[in-house]
TrEMBL record:
Source species: Mesorhizobium sanjuanii
Protein name: Ribosome maturation factor RimP
Domain Ribosome maturation factor RimP N-terminal, chain residue ranges per copy: 25-97
GO biological process assignments: ribosomal small subunit assembly; translation
A Pfam family reported for this protein in Swiss-Prot or TrEMBL: RimP_N
Keywords linked to the UniProt accession: Cytoplasm, Ribosome biogenesis
Gene Ontology annotations for the cellular component aspect, listed alphabetically: cytosol
InterPro entries assigned to the protein according to its UniProt record, in alphabetical order: Ribosome_maturation_RimP, RimP_C_sf, RimP_N, RimP_N_sf
Amino acid sequence: MTAAASQADDRIIRESGIDARIALIVQPVLRGIGFRLVRVHLSGQNGLTLQIMAEREDGTMTVEDCEEVSRAVSPALDVDDPIEKAYHLEVSSPGIDRPLVRKSDFVTWTGHLIKMETSVLVAERKRFKG
């Protein structure tokens, strides 16, 4: 996928708050090294953990890719320093329970069973399976 095509396939599901600020910092870094951001999540269980979920343009992600992403985003996060406290950086692939965040994700996974939770009520419910 070209850079222009990648930008045309931007995420339609996005973070809010501090997660959104972090996403703005890491997304250009990821694009620059050939990866797409799937999700950013900062959690506070057992200290702070920043999870960055990413993948290559073809949807793959190896352990070596996770290491490459970690080494690329760490300096950018150190410069902008959006997190006030110490945290652990965790880079992962989307895996089997991947979030669908782009229109192309929905196309790619057409025909597969999904469990979906919306942020607003749809037909008086938020959880769907099918």
